């Protein structure tokens, strides 16, 4: 069996394995494979000219303590159903993380389907997420915000937003016009749009809305305030049915200064690729990486 980086000529089999593993819509896969896949590094396992397992490494620039660093985010972790539980994915993930380490990257991260499995591969959960009930926050929302689609903003507004984010978070993915436009394309693939929440002409949050099974889902939400009241305001302004719960990353589950007893979500797991970096970044820090694609 071959293990290693696969060429983009394997697109047809990559897309078929993605569909088998994740069941995404054709419109969403069109977006992903036309706009995200070409920049990815994909490690695959091939046997008898068949792609049986794969790991996608998506490039991102993140801001850590005011400085931009280039890393890759792990997505598209998939193995064909008849090749599972053979240790194939463990080998691919090691190849992928060894590759990133050799390239000098400081860490990588993913959203775990199985926390115990990834912990056995050297990943640690440094950023929790929580399934927050939405109904209890209705009527609490601030009324001073307006929502705009991302095609109504400019680089100057985003520059100010990123400066403000630097004072709020130690680690986050900066928002620029390219990011905003790609997020908008992603959301349009599922009958949604990308938006900013503004107070006067100042951006307070950027997020996408995508059609889910029951109502629209708020995705890639990054805010200066990061409150449930703000999320309720978003749903109210857009006229969407408010979901029973939303998954909130990073922030403690608080309401009126009291910690809520709520279920944990998948969170984000990180693998440190540079010795000592965990001491630099993951203790007493405010992390905000919640990317999906």
Word description of this protein:
The chain has 293 residues and is an alpha+beta fold. The chain has eight helices and 17 strands. It has helices at residues 11-22, 26-36, 88-102, 115-119, 155-168, 177-188, 228-238, 277-281; strands at residues 2-5, 41-47, 50-64, 67-79, 107-110, 124-127, 129-133, 146-149, 171-172, 193-199, 202-211, 216-223, 245-249, 254-255, 258-259, 268-272, 287-288. The strands form five sheets. Strands 1, 2, 3, 4, 9 and 17 form a six-stranded mixed sheet that branches. Strand 10 and strand 11 (202-211) form a beta hairpin. The longest helix has 15 residues, at 88-102. The chain is globular and about 60 Å long.
Secondary structure blueprint with pairings:
Layout: E1 2-5, H1 11-22, H2 26-36, E2 41-47, E3 50-64, E4 67-79, H3 88-102, E5 107-110, H4 115-119, E6 124-127, E7 129-133, E8 146-149, H5 155-168, E9 171-172, H6 177-188, E10 193-199, E11 202-211, E12 216-223, H7 228-238, E13 245-249, E14 254-255, E15 258-259, E16 268-272, H8 277-281, E17 287-288
Parallel strand pairs: 9-17
Antiparallel strand pairs: 1-2, 2-3, 3-4, 3-9, 5-16, 6-16, 7-13, 8-10, 10-11, 11-12, 14-15
Short structural description:
The protein is 29% helix and 34% strand. It is of the alpha+beta class.
The beta-strand count equals: 17
Tell me the number of helical segments per DSSP (H or I, 4 or more residues long): 8
**N- to C-terminal distance:** 28 Å
| CATH fold description of the largest domain | Aminopeptidase
Structural class determined from secondary elements: alpha+beta
Which term fits the overall shape?
A: globular
CATH architecture of the largest domain: 3-Layer(aba) Sandwich
SSE order in H/E notation? EHHEEEHEHEEEHEHEEEHEEEEHE
């Amino acid at each position: 069996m071959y293990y290693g980086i696969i060429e983009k000529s394997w697109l047809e089999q990559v897309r078929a394995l993605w569909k088998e593993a994740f069941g995404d819509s054709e419109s969403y896969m069109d977006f992903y494979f036309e706009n995200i896949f070409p920049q990815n590094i994909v490690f695959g396992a091939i046997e008898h000219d068949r792609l049986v397992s794969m790991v996608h490494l998506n490039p991102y620039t993140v801001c850590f303590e005011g400085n931009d660093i280039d890393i890759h985010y792990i997505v598209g972790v998939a193995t064909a159903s008849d090749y599972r539980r053979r240790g194939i994915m463990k080998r691919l993930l090691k190849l992928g993380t060894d590759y990133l380490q050799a390239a000098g990257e400081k860490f990588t991260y993913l959203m775990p389907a199985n926390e115990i499995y990834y912990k056995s591969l050297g990943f640690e959960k440094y950023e929790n997420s929580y399934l927050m009930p939405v109904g209890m926050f209705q009527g609490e929302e601030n009324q001073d915000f307006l929502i705009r689609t991302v095609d109504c903003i400019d680089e100057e507004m985003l520059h100010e937003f990123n400066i403000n984010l630097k004072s709020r978070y130690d680690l986050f993915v900066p928002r620029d016009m390219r990011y905003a436009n790609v997020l908008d394309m992603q959301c349009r693939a599922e009958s949604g749009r990308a938006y900013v929440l503004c107070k006067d002409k100042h951006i307070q949050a950027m997020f996408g809305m995508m059609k889910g099974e029951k109502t629209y889902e708020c995705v890639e939400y990054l805010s200066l305030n990061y409150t449930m009241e703000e999320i309720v305001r978003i749903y109210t302004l857009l006229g969407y049915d408010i979901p029973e719960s939303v998954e909130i990353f990073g922030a403690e589950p608080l309401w009126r200064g009291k910690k809520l007893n709520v279920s944990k979500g998948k969170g984000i797991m990180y693998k440190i690729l540079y010795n000592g970096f965990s001491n630099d970044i993951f203790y007493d820090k405010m992390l905000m990486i919640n990317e999906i694609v």
